[in-house]
Each structure stands twice: as C-alpha cells, then as structure tokens.
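Worked example 2:
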Amino acid sequence: MLLHGLVKLHISLSEHVPKMVKSIYQWLASVRRPEHRLAKSILPLAEEHPHDVVVTLLRCSPSCDRTAVVLWGVMFSDGETSKLVMNELVRVLEDWPLHRTSTTDRDNTAVYSLAATRALREILNMDTCVLAVKKRFPHLFLAVLFQISFSTQHTPEEVHAFWRECTREDKEPHEPKRFAAYTMARLLARVDCLEQLAAFERGRGWELLISPEVHHLGLTLLAGELKTTSFELRLWILHAMKRRLSREEPRWKIAAMAFILEMLTCEDLREQDDYIVRLLPRYLHSEDEMMLDLLLRGLLKMCDGRRRARKIAYLLSDILALLKHEEKYLAMLALVLLIRILQCIDRLLNRHTAREMAVNLRPLFEHRDATVRLLAIQLYMDVMDFTEPIEKRHVRSEVRKCLIPLLCHLDDDVEEVAEAALKTLTFAAKFLKKEKLKRMLKARKKWRAGEYLVRTAPKPQPWSGQAPSSPAPSVQGRQLCPCPWLQPGAASLHCAHAASPRARSSKVSSPGSSHFWSLGMLTGPWPSREWASEWHLSPLGSTLSPAPCRARPQHQPAASWVLGVSQQGRPVWWFYSGKSSQAPPQPLSHSSSSKGKGEKI
C-alpha cells in the first residue's frame, strides 16, 4: 500500500519513474502472485512516462519473465496507454542490435532489440493487444522483418551471449533469427493475414527466410504474398522501403530492394517504377551476388509489357555487363532478361545497340554451361532479327565474326545447342545475303559450309603485337595466318568438334614462343587420300591428335585449316588454306609427316 501511495504522490516527478518501476517489478517478483493489485500501479506511470517505463522494464527483465508479462498485460489493458507503450516498443525494435537511450535518472544502459522482440512475442498472446497491434502493424512488421534479415546476415557475438543468457531457462531455446521468425508468424496471424501466412508456409518460406544463401528468395516470397493485402498497406511499405534504401547502410538494402521490386509488380503501383529504374544502375554494378540475383529476378517480373520493357531497356548496357560474370546463373538470368526485353519492347534496335549486344553475346558461345550457350545463340538470332533494316549494313561486320563459332557448334555435345547453332547460322547467312551458304546449311552440308567460309574469308591481318617480320607458326611445315573472324582476345574455338584421340599424331611448332597452344580443324581432299581431322589442345613439344573422318568427294576444294593459337598465354586465331604438293601422312602411320609448304593467305 505504501508503494502504491508513493506512485500516486510522485507521478509528476519524472526522475523517480525508473526507480519506481524497478521497485514495482522487484516487489512483484518476490511474491507468489505477481497478479497482485500493485501491478496496476504501473498504468499511470506508463500513461505519463511511456519511454521510461518501457526501457526500464526491458532492462529489468530482458528475457520477459512471468512478472514482466503481468506488467505488460496491465499496460495493454488500457487502449490509450497501449498505443503509447507500443510506440516506444517499436523504437526499440527498430534499432539492431542495441537501442541506445537514456532515462530520466541518467541511466544510459543500452537495451537489446531482441529483449523487445521477446516482450512483443508475449504481448501478441494477449487478447487486449489487438487494437494497438493493428494500428502499428506496418511499423511492427518492418521492425521484425529487418531483425530477421540482420540476424540472418550477421549476428554479433555479444548478441549471441545475450541471447544464451535470455534463453537459459527456456524449454526449447531457438536462434535469434528463428525466434524473430516465430514472432513474425504470430504478428501476421494477429492482423488476420492467415491466407498470406498459409501460402508463405506452403512455399517453405520460413526456411528460405532464415537461410543465409537464399535469404533474398524468402524475402521475395513474403513480399509476393503481401501483394494481396490492402492498397494502403502496400503503398506504405513501398515508401518505407524507399526511405530505407536511400540510407547509406548496406544491411538495409537486400530486404528493401526485395520488397520494392515485388511491390512494383502490382497493377495499382505501376506508376511508382520511375524511382527504382533511375536507382538501379548503381546496384547493377554491385559485387554482391545476392543483390544481383535479386535485381535480375525482380526485373524479369517487372518486364511484363511494352511500357515497362522500354523503361528497363535504358539499363541495357548495365545488364550486358553482367554477361561476363563468373557465376553462370547470373549470366543465365541476364540472358533471359534480355530475351524478355526484346520480346516486349515492340521496337527495333539501332546499330549501336545491336552491335553492343552482338559483341557481348559472341564470347558466350564458348561458355562451359550448355544452357548459357543455348540462350546466347538464340538471343544472337533475335538481335539480328530485331535490327532496323536500314541499320543492318552497319552490323554485318560483327555478324561475320560469329560464323565460325556457330559452325563449330553444329556438332555440339548438347543436341539443343547444335540445333540452335544451325538455326542461327542459317539466319546469319540470310542476314549477310549469302544464299549459297544458306542452301548448304538447309541441306545440312556442314563440311561444305565450313570450306565455303574458309574460301570466302577476307584477307586476315596479323594479330595485335606481332611484328611484320615475325615468322608465322607452322603445322607439319605449313605456315598459318591469323583467322579474320575472331579477335585476338576471343575465347578459344569450342571443343565440341574434338573427337577422341586416335593413333597418329603430329608436332606443332612456333618460332620464338614458349607458350604455344592450338586447337583446330583440317578438312579437304588430298591427292592420295581424302580425309579430315579434328585437332586437340596441346602444348609445345607434345602432340596434336587428329581423328580420321569420313571420305570426301574428289571435287571438293583444296585442303583448309582453321586453327586456334594462344601466343604466350593469350588466344590468337589462325587459318591455312591451299594445296599441298605432297600427300599428308597416312592417318594410322606414326612415323610419316608432311613437309610440303602451304600457301599463306
């Protein structure tokens, strides 16, 4: 009774409030029934000084024991007081991992935000909290969401130590991120988002959300389920995430970007997309693979019509830069996005855009992943198809460089890639107005098409850095020249043409080079024997192993070489075409060799 009277007497003396809250808590903790009427003494204190009451109670009981639950229940039994208390609780929840503040007694001990999460979990079990929770739901939702995100990405050791102390007496202690996830589930249930919660759980959303590797996918799934809520809530969340994204704090960015991209796919929020399109170039150059994955997936969902596709097309150069990324799934997503843009944009490409896309796509023909190769080859044909007719003549020089790589993929190990290469190569022949090549490809005469390309090739130029007087490499005594279709920095000729090594072999020599590698293809009839061989990558001093192929008609043109050479570690392309005065060695003879001189082109 004495303590209850002191509360009424000194309620206006704010510097005594923290001490009175401590006294109430300690007295109730010492009795067997914490539901004593003295607990109601905290109600007028909370109404007049909500900040001091909330912070002091969290300091007294960070684990939210039975006594603290009784005091929280008393404060939430009154409608107006509950709103004031909830506001203070949200402020603590939003500061991760510590809420640094000071009470009127000049105590500046920091409060862990997880202490507020434990208190919120108990409050959500009270029927009296519904009105206060619904009124502050958006703030509570974001605060708990960011706690899950922060604790999943990185939890400081001091937080782990605090949490072990808090959960020491729990029957089933959980990690901080999992406990925050349970609190989020209870929060959604309290505001009647039961359908969204059930759909999220069916998609195993909680496991995604608390897994560091796929955390961004869990955020996207949760945001997608909230798209069925009210327009006011979604608009509020969108603007709140924009404010978070504008802060220069990396920890906010993944969660904020996931919700922004997902909310912008809503029909009634489409007009809000100008902001994110202007902001994206900065993030498309991020080194964070999770952010890049998030952006590409979000842009794929956003690119669902002509208007959106034209806006996203302004990011074309940034998206093309991602094709060079080491992670194959990012290159794959970028290719799918580029295909979607071309399908939806309803506009032809100018020469600058078409050339830029052609240059960036060609190296992907040699990618180690078959799906990336397939998508790159298919997109290359789309680029040719979507080029302005009047601009095609400016793009033909780039298209000519893709003919040999596409030809080599006609025998790709993956059937879908081989079919796509044939289709794209046929379209390239039409694009370049090479009707003879087009007829050969339609008849599937691959070898004739290869010989035609070698025979009609323009005069090659020496590779970059080669002195005019430098002797050219030779194979079996035949000199080689740079191949005109491939640049010095291009990837190596695809090994799909390489067959299993056979019995005979030949030496490759390169004057003045200690690092000489080669990969090539020899075709054409010879005076004594008609044969074709495919050559494997080998260093200087070892052997290239050709595989005899089917016999060829006598009327075919002279022998021709296509050979990839790496001079001191960098790939350089060569080719040889001409008649030999002597027949080549027999395919199964190990000792014979050809010494005829080839004609340099």
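The chain has four domains: 1-192, 224-345, 348-455, 474-577. The chain is about 50% helix and 5% strand.
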